[in-house]
Amino acid sequence: MFALTLLFASALSSVQVRAITASVEESMAQRQIPSIAVRVDRDGTNVYARTFGYRDLADRVPADLATRYQYGSITKQFTGAAILTLAKEGKLSLDDPLGKWLPQFAKYPVTLRQMLVHTSGIADYSGEEWYLRKDYTNPSVGYDPLIAWSASQPLRFTPGTKAEYDNAAYTILARVIEKASGMPYFAFLSKRFLQPLHMTSVAPQTFFKIEPDTARGYMVPQPEVAAVFGISSGATLVPALEWNLTQCDGAGFLVGDTADLQKWDDALLSGRVLGGEIGREFRTAGRLADGKPTYTGPENPAHKPGVYLLGGLGLFEVDGVPVYGANGGTAGFLAFTATIPSKHLAVTILTNRGADLDNSKTTIPIVRALLK
Question: Is residue 208 very low, low, confident or very high in pLDDT (cuts 50, 70, 90)?
Fold first, then answer.
C-alpha cells in the first residue's frame, strides 16, 4: 500500500526513479520498516514525492504525503541557525563563555562555538543508564533537572580537544536562545524560520502520542535496550517506547512532514534563509584547538570522515560529492535531510522505525541514486 505523487518527473531520469523505488522497497523488506517517505527537490521545485507502507500498523493506516514523523536531531539545525542569527544581530557572540548565559556553568571554560560543534565536553545525560531507566519515559520530568545534572558533572574532556556528539549541549543552547532573544525556544523558531517559510506541519513533540496525520513509531528491542528498560527483547516490531522529548528540545523534539523539511533545505540552497555571511557560517566546519577538523562520530550518515558544522549539521561525501545534512533518530523514528549544492538537490527521507537501525543503509542508496 502506498501513496504516490510524481511532479515534474522528467527532472529525474527513469533510472533514478527506479533506483530510488527499488532501494526503498528492499530496505523496508529486509529491515522491517513500516513506512518510508521520500521527497526530492531540484532548485526549489519538487521532482519526486512518494510514501511507502503504513504509518500505523495496528489500524493499517497507509502513510501519505501529509504524514508527520519525528525529526529527531535534525532539530539541531534550527538551534544552530537560531544561535547564528542572534550572533549576527549582536545579541550574543559565538565566543561567549556559556557561563555568561547560564551561571551554573561558569566554572567551565566552554564557549557557545564549542557547543555547536560538539567539542565542549559537557556531560550528556541522554545516554546515561540512570536517565534511561528513570526519566526517559517520565512525562512529568522536563529539562531543568537534567541540565542541572550536566552542570554538576566534570567535563568529559578539555574543551576543544576532541569532538564527541552531545545532545545535552543543544538542549542547553536552547536556553541560551531564550535568554538572548527574550522568547521561548519554539516561539523564536516559529517567528524567525517556520512561519516565514510556511512550515505549517512542524510542531514540538513533547511526549509520544498519536496526533492527527502523525505516524506511530516502532522499534525492535535489542537485548541491551531491553535490559535497561526491563522489557522483552526479540526480532518483532513493537510500538516504540514513549520518550518525553521535552527533555531534549533543542537537540531533537520537532515533528513534521517531508515537504516542510524540503522548504527548509530549499531555502538554505537559495539563500532565502541564512543567506550571505550567516549562511557561510552555517556551513563552516568546526576546528579543534590544534586546528584539526571536528570529525563526526558514528551518527555520520555516510560512515566516512565528515565534519561537524556550526549550523548543527555535518558535511560528508557520497561518491566524492559533498553533501550537507544530518540524521535524526528517536525511539521510534529515523530521519535524514540534506542538500547537495553541486547538483542543486535537496532530499528528505523519514521513517517510523527507531534508532535501533543503521539509517545509512536506507538513506545512502537513495542519495547514490540521485547522483547517477
Answer: low
Q: Map the chain to HEC letters.
A: CEEEECCCHHHCCHHHHHHHHHHHHHHHHHHCCCEEEEEEEECCEEEEEEEEEEEECCCCEECCCCCEEECHHHHHHHHHHHHHHHHHCCCCCCCCEHHHHCHHHCCCCCEHHHHHCCCCCCCCHHHCHHHHHHCCCCCCCCCHHHHHHHHHCCCCCCCCCCCCCCHHHHHHHHHHHHHHHCCCHHHHHHHHHHCCCCCCCCEECCCCCCCCCECCCEECCCHHHHHHHCCCCCCCCEECCCCCHHHHHHHHCEEECHHHHHHHHHHHHHCCCCCHHHHHHHCCECECCCCCECECCCCCCCCCCCEEECCCCEEEEECCEEEEEEEEECCCCEEEEEEEHHHCEEEEEEECECCCCCCHHHHHHHHHHHHC
pLDDT in tens, 230-240: 777 777 899 99
Give residue 194's pLDDT.
98
The pTM of this model reads 0.94
